[in-house]
């Protein structure tokens, strides 16, 4: 088992990539602490993992509130004795459109969810990782934060994800000597609720990728598993593309 006896926080865990990660990580031996805003979905997923012999706990809340990140770390410590890593996956797309037509409320909401939320998560998690002698942090970014490639209307989202890459690289540099690694996943188009359910939209997104398809959530979760496992022990500071080749095409 790749994650045996590790305790990991997963945010954005009620659906999509986060839910796929919760099931995958638990199957690979991890204790998982699940966070998201939707309590019912979290409780259902937690029950499914525990009933199958895994270890899971959950707490509903909002990553834009600093106290919530602190509470997730406290839950990990209380339930499982510490923290070994986190998959900070929560985020939002926000409204898509030209910057000159974007209202400040949308800008602030996207930056707060995707960047400030990541800051709060890291701030709360680092002391717990340090107390345990090290660990790993993985954040869900996006290819548009690395190589926008002319994708229209992505100003707020791309800015938030580009900022996330900068935060992750700073964390990696600051924490490497303490045995704490930090990486950002850059998914391509993935079949989640954020991508909607319109077949024409899915076809358009799939066509942007050299592989001519979108990712399944578990494919992104598998990359996160690698970055949280000991198999990636010399990997830190990276924007790690899991995008079906789209960033290479758009450079």
Q: Explain this structure to me?
A:
With 251 residues, the protein is α/β, with parallel strands linked by helices. It has a single domain (7-250), classed as NAD(P)-binding Rossmann-like Domain (Rossmann fold). It has helices at residues 16-27, 39-51, 66-80, 104-131, 155-175, 199-208, 217-228, 246-250, and strands spanning 7-11, 31-36, 55-60, 85-88, 135-140, 180-187, 239-242. It has a seven-stranded parallel β-sheet, sandwiched between helices.
Give me some keywords for this one.
seven-stranded parallel beta sheet; NAD(P)-bd_dom_sf; oxidoreductase activity, acting on the CH-OH group of donors, NAD or NADP as acceptor; single chain; globular; 7 strands; 16% strand; quinone binding; alpha/beta; 251 residues; 8 helices
Mean pLDDT: 93
Number of DSSP helical runs? 8
Just name the CATH architecture.
Answer: 3-Layer(aba) Sandwich
Report the CATH superfamily.
Answer: NAD(P)-binding Rossmann-like Domain
The fraction of residues in strands falls at 15-25%
CATH domain fold name: Rossmann fold
Helix-residue proportion: 40-55%
Structural class: alpha/beta
Number of DSSP E strands: 7
Order of neighbouring strands in the sheet with most strands: 3-2-1-4-5-6-7
Keywords: Oxidoreductase
GO molecular function: oxidoreductase activity, acting on the CH-OH group of donors, NAD or NADP as acceptor; quinone binding
InterPro entries: KR_dom, NAD(P)-bd_dom_sf, Sc_DH/Rdtase_CS, SDR_fam
Family: Belongs to the short-chain dehydrogenases/reductases (SDR) family.
């Amino acid at each position: 088992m790749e994650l045996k006896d590790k305790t990991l926080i997963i945010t954005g865990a009620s659906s999509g990539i986060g839910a796929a990660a919760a099931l995958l990580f638990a199957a690979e031996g991890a204790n998982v602490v699940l966070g998201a805003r939707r309590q019912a979905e979290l409780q259902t997923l937690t029950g499914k993992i525990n009933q199958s012999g895994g270890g899971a706990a959950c707490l509903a809340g909002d990553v834009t509130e600093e106290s919530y990140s602190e509470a997730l770390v406290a839950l990990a410590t209380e339930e499982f004795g510490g923290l070994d890593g986190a998959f900070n996956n929560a985020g939002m797309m926000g409204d898509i459109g030209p910057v000159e037509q974007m209202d400040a409320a949308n800008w602030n909401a996207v930056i707060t969810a995707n960047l400030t939320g990541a800051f709060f998560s890291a701030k709360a998690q680092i002391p717990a990782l340090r107390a345990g002698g090290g660990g790993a942090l993985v954040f869900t970014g996006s290819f548009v934060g690395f190589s926008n490639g002319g994708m229209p209307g992505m100003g707020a989202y791309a800015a938030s994800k580009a900022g996330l890459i900068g935060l992750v690289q700073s964390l990696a540099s600051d924490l490497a000597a303490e045995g704490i690694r930090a990486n950002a996943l850059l998914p391509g188009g993935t079949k989640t609720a954020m991508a909607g359910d319109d077949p024409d939209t899915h076809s358009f997104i799939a066509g942007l990728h050299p592989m001519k398809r979108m990712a399944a959530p578990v494919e992104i979760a598998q990359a996160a598993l690698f970055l949280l496992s000991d198999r990636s022990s010399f990997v830190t500071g990276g924007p790690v593309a899991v995008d079906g080749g789209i960033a290479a095409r758009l450079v």
